[in-house]
Give the backbone structure.
Amino acid sequence: MTPGLLKRRQVLVAGAAVLAGGALARAHDGTVHVTIEKLAFLPAEIEVKAGETIAWTNKDPFAHTATVKGGWEVPIPPGKTATHVAAAGDTVGYYCRFHPNMKGRIRVVA
Ligand SMILES: [Cu+2]
């Protein structure tokens, strides 16, 4: 195997590790990150532990919210990040007040 091929293989393995981490949507710093882009929460479904922070980063040029019907609401201005600390009872579906087709789900795990 030539050095060039070896290097390419290492890059592919590193990329796969990043993808696996993203699919789990878990962070090591107590914060789970959700990106909002083109009218979608990415990832749409996340798992958090109670007490961890959920951080939404809005990459769209207009405002969004993370709204739980009958519960809390986090306004997320364009270009900004807004947070919510997950409580034990926060296994919920949420949506955007301005774009009700935008839907996300939070699962609080032990
Ligand atoms: Cu929205």
